[in-house]
Amino acid sequence: MAHLAKDKYYWTQLRTTLTAGSWGSSNPAKALNGSPISWTELLRKFNKHCHGYPDVSEIASQTQALSLLVAGGPTDDELDGDQCHDEVSLALGTEGTVASQHAKEAQAGFEILKALESEYSKSDSLKLALAYYAHALGDPSQCISYLRQVRDLVNAQGRLGALDSIGSNTLSLQAASVSDNTSSVSFIGSFISSESTSTIADIAEGKAWAAIEVIRSVCLQGMSLEKLTPTDTTTILSVYLTAAQALPVIETNISQSFPLNSLHPSTSGPNRISNPSFSRYRELWRWVERVLRRAIIIASRTCSLSDARESVLWSLFSQYQTCSAHWPPTFRARHRSTTSVLFIRALVLHSRLPRNMPPPPCVRSRPASPDVPITVSTIARRAVQDYRDILNASTRFPKAGERNDKVEELTDLCVAVWEAGGSKNGEAAWVMEILWWATRLTFNSPRVFRHLMRVSEASGDVTLAVRALRLYIQTVGKAKLARKPTESDATWVATLVWGARMLCRLSLVADSASGHRGIDEAREAGEVLGKAKERLDPSDKALNARVELAEGIWNTVMAIKEQDHLTRTSRLTKALSLLESSIQNQPTSSAHYHIALALYRPIPGRDLGRAIENARLAVEIESDNIRYFHLLGLLLAASEDWRGAREVLEAGAMLGDETWTAEQTPSLAGDVPDSSTIGKSPADVAATSDASSSARPESSQTSEAASTHTERPHEWLTVLDDGQSNMLPPTAELLQPLPDHPPPSATEHFEHALQLRMTQLALTELVEGPEITEERWLEVFQWFATRRGPERDQSQRTSIETAPRSLEVKPETYGPRSITSFQNDTSSMFAPGLTPPITVAHDENGGTSLQNGTPKTSTDESEKEKEKDKSAGKKVQKMLKNRVHKEQRRITTIGRKIGHGVGRQRGGLTLRRTSSTPTEMYKAMGIDQASYQASSIHSRRHSPYASTNELVRPESPPPPLPPPTMTPRERKERSRKERRLLSELWLMSAATFRRSGKIEQVRGAIQEAEVKDEENPNVWVQLGLYHTALGNPDRAVQAFNKALFIFPESIPATVHLSHSYLTLAKEGESDMDNVDLVVGMLSDLTQGPGWDVPEAWYFLGKAHGMRGIRDRERECLGFALSLADGRPLRDFGEAVGWCL
Prior knowledge:
The longest helix is centred in the middle third of the chain and has 23 residues, at 642-664. The protein is built from 46 helices and five strands. It is elongated. The strands form two sheets. It has a three-stranded antiparallel beta sheet with strand order 3-4-5. A two-stranded antiparallel sheet has the order 1-2. The chain has 1140 residues and is an all-alpha fold.
């Protein structure tokens, strides 16, 4: 019994040692007493206790010797065969062969095994070992000859599949019976028990080593064919697939016998290395990795991504990724790097196929989770993370003069994957994580900085984007001076053009109210463009066109931000010239968009017809950009083509709905919507809206060279070219050219669509009147709620109820249309007609009624309150005069005093809020009116303008219900900009209500706007207009001053305040000092941001007329009249923006 126990034990020890591939270990096994033993001692004990198997011990001994000779060393890294691998080589080379200095030793071992052939002619294991030696000695023909002598080797995959009996996860230690004859055991009979019923993963009974012999032999056959017939790739691939088809069974058995480490598969560290699923089967994984890698390389050359054979390639990638879950990151890092690059490259190239192509099988075969759907992007991200773990364990921070090329290439792959998914802002976070990691393994890499600049801007971190741009310029510039260029001139220019455009966008969105005017960013953009032009190739027309386009945009931004009346016209004229030159070199939709804006500006070259023509061309070239439709609609409205404008705006609205639908149901294949189908119908509408507005071009323009998505026709597309090149293609080839501008995010899509709908409402009110527009407001609020969900604002609000009083609604003396440049009042004051006066009276029961009739004078206010209001007004006048006389400084120098002087509102007018806002609007927004009431403008508890001593403090209401739970993403989406947009919606509705005579609803809409965004100065502008309609000019002046306190450069507040002062002076209720004040304010405004506002020039002319300066009056009125000709429905900067 003891003899049988030792027999079984040393069989198990030998099989375990062989399967683990511990060829270089000094003590690979243990004796029966637990003491470690060497290879020599293990074989001696095996021969001693396992009688009748000298061939087995000799084959094991020579296999160990050959493995050491092939590896060239005893370490695990050398045995894994990764040390001599060329990092970018795809060729077989000398892989699996013995170096010339070890050839004699290998030949001696070969002769020893050949001497056993006569005695053990039926031993298949012997023939497989001889084939291994033949290949290692560089004789592929003899290797194949030995393999053909093995019985049933061709059916090895079926043989392994038949062993798939996953019963028990415990290992059976049955040994082969000593009475068995090796001839009766098939080709794996030398090492496997004839009575074995265990799984392939079983080591004790030899099934695992048998699988290794099969995989190794198939791999040797394929490698030999690669050397003998390298052009017969079909046969070679079919040989490799013989082994690959058996791998799912092997991996499944191993996983069930030795479950994977509980750590994430991508986790690196000792826990991964000590995983028994790897360490006990290391020799198996060496040959599995090799056979899969060689198959992947062959399939990458021969299998097209656009036909049925692509499933072979995706299956190989999937098997490789599944098996690699058992491997530590240090295992064959260089080989796996090559495979990872090929996998990611295949995914990126597949995403560029036409959208009607099905997703790759690696996506279709995986069940999608409702929370995390499986897409090409998610598969690619997993591959990127695995590759990152490999590089993290196998690379280091570069020394002086070195570069970590592998890490830099990974950043290229990450950005290529991100671009393949549509360059979505929401998916930039994981790319940012990789780029930050790359900075720790690279030193001042321009490639990393270039990607970091673009991706950080997409993720919203503009500060980091600017820093990355500056680092890129500094690093590449110094390398150029040192005559060690790291970036090509074309890449340098394109990157700096992108950076300059980014700085221009940041300059335009700068918050002037916070003291940041954005002029520094604009000036830096000019410096960046200057550096780009230093290395610009004059023969590259496309790049020259991009530089001229960027320079034209920069001149426009400088004209806006400098606010210098001496240089403004010259800058805008130069911008127009540069944009026209850009179109001549390369017509793009972006260039046509910007030249349309430039042609509309009031400069000597202004041409509304040409502006419409260029806007139409922009729509035709890029028919999926809603801003192009919006601009065309605004220009058509400016030319009084109401029908054409309405059709174009409707087409743009339809495009916005299609885009939103596409975002809600992303494509499973490539995550990129089909730009050829979205917006096709709107483009046709825009092209045929009205032939009388602008002649349609005879020929369509070419598409942009730097489009966001590169689509290829249905063609033979392989991962690698079927050529003789054995080098991996540069990863930079996967990167798409930098687009003209970043693609809009989902939030920006929503903002653009909302702005277009606001323009639609303005057009409807202008053409059909405010009464018809009121019905459309409900649709817009319902649309807003659908896109963004019901409002969840449940903040506590307080209010003051005053005694009933009679309120007078006084018509606007300058007509029902207000200033077009004001964001919330979209009609013109130059239109004739007056709104009939409406009286709002409160009955004894506190109700409210509207009455048409003769205006009444309110008698409820005390004389003390009137004197108090006048006193506050005089303080404001004094402060404004000081601003004008002291070099026309901004009102911010006296903001604190103004805020204190106008903040007291004792006895202020307040309307009943229970019916102030239409119930239909609450329903449209999904708001419960009973639990949602707006705060009073003058009685907010935290208002900076109200004194807490004057507030009536009613009994504290119960705390509001907690808001519904919101995800972090929802909270993030409800940004300040979104609240501002919703506030503007309420203010536009307030203006409509005011013009239609529904004065009580005006106050309710204004209150709602203030709740949404208390920092919005237009809230106080609309409140001032509300008091003007009620016939309370003093209160109107206070409201306009509050708007200026919040935003000193507010154009509507300045113009309306000036109009109020002029009206009071004309009626004799104020002295002429107010007229001087108006001249100072409007002179400052017309030289600065309000230089193209006709109302500012109009009132400035009137003020000069009241002062008796007739020449200046005629000059101002004439310029105002020229500006009023072809005026838009809304301000272009607010509606569509001055820069893409």
